[in-house]
Amino acid sequence: MPVTLEPPDPDSLLPIKGVTLGAAEANIRKPDRKDLLVIALEDGARVAGVFTQNRFCAAPVVVARQHLTMLDPDASIRALMINAGCANAGTGKDGIAAARRTCGELARLLGCSSAQVLPFSTGVIMEPLPVARIAAGLPACVAGLGENNWLDAAKAIMTTDTVPKAISRRIRIGDAPVTITGIAKGAGMIRPNMATLLAFIASDARVSLPLTRAAVAYAARRSFNCITVDGDTSTNDSFVLVTTGAATMPEITDAAGREYSAFRDGVTEVALALAQAVIRDGEGATKFMTIRVDGGRNEDECRRAAYAIAHSPLVKTAFFASDPNLGRILAAIGNAGIADLDAEKIDLYLDDVLVARNGGRHPDYRESDGQRVMKQSEIEVTVKLNRGPASGTVWTCDLSHDYVSINADYRS
């Protein structure tokens, strides 16, 4: 049975005090769908983000980074503006000017400065941003601002996604109840390296700006930076964390305290759920695969081995076909670029099936056992390098005929 991802229950998505959302149809690329989103923030919200490491980064990434660093210390970010349908990447100086103009249009409507607006875009690369359409759609976004519009917001940022991605969690920090809600989009061009993936998480927790920044980096490393659909890092990847400070609690300022750990772990839980939803909705995906590598000398080499498996077209197509041609996994590990790797120490498991021991096929392994596992929609691959104490995990999907079709027809 193919992997499935159910749309979120609207009643499960919890409002965040200090955050309102409004979406509208701006006809940016396709008619009759909401493709423009405004997330408005009350004054005093702390905002932090991590962005794509692609050197050909999109104009909105450039502008958002600038606005986050140039903001007056006495001011705060008042809005996030997201459009689908046009990435505004590969558009040069004109694209940066266009992103700034749209920030100015929203700032005028909200009564703030343009530097208090962060722009985000997703869609086709190397097409000019339709500033006039966005400007025309912004009044409807602002008029529709409401705290319960998280599902509409998740739908408005979709491109090739088949399901909106949104999740909420309630946690306790000390005696205070705290809410965390987030949305994400992404199904293809996914190998975030913060980093087309966008994610926005908000919480009413009271957290200092330095620790809001620390939490978004921590969560990214353990969620969005552990997934891959096709190995392509988008020009537009952005993950933003907002803390409004509306919860009744003392401000979290101590990175070593239990309060910060509870907040950081709550944000990471939401980010990981969103990241895994992206993989489950991967373009053409029929299998959800967990690639776990144990026994490395450090986490980085474990991830390198895991990504070598997850990025291999030969491995991914074998899983699509439920073909236990598992020597492809060993070949991928050997191609991971790990210095002085001893192939004769490596063990390989497919779920609970021991496939290889000490670098070679285990005498008790039967191909029928491998095929039984590979027919499942959710599969775990475990590699034991047996050279150290570290481990690392990556989540990925298979590579199907539909992936090719979706991307061949993407602009039509």
Report the span from N to C terminus: 30 Å
Write down the overall mean pLDDT.
92
In spatial order, strands of the major sheet run 9-16-11-15-12-13-14
Q: Look at the structure and give the CATH class of the largest domain.
A: Alpha Beta
Beta-strand percentage range: 15-25%
| N-to-C series of helices and strands | EEEHEHEHHEEEHEEHEHHHEEEHEEH
Provide the CATH architecture of the largest domain: 4-Layer Sandwich
Counted by DSSP, the helix tally is: 11
Largest sheet: 7 strands, mixed
CATH-assigned fold name of the largest domain? L-amino peptidase D-ALA esterase/amidase
Query: What spatial form do the alpha-carbon principal axes imply?
Result: globular
Low-confidence stretches: none
Describe the structure.
By secondary structure, the protein is an alpha+beta fold. The chain has 2 domains: 10-280, 4-Layer Sandwich (L-amino peptidase D-ALA esterase/amidase); 288-408, Ubiquitin-like (UB roll), CATH 3.10.20.340. Helices cover 32% and strands 25% of the residues. The chain is built from 11 helices and 16 strands. The strands form 3 sheets. Strands 9-16-11-15-12-13-14 form a 7-stranded mixed sheet. A hairpin with a 2-residue loop joins strand 12 (347-350) and strand 13 (353-357). Helix 1 crosses helix 2 and helix 2 packs parallel to helix 3. The longest helix is centred in the middle third of the chain and has 23 residues, at 258-280. It is globular, with a radius of gyration of 22 Å. The two termini are 30 Å apart. The mean pLDDT is 92.
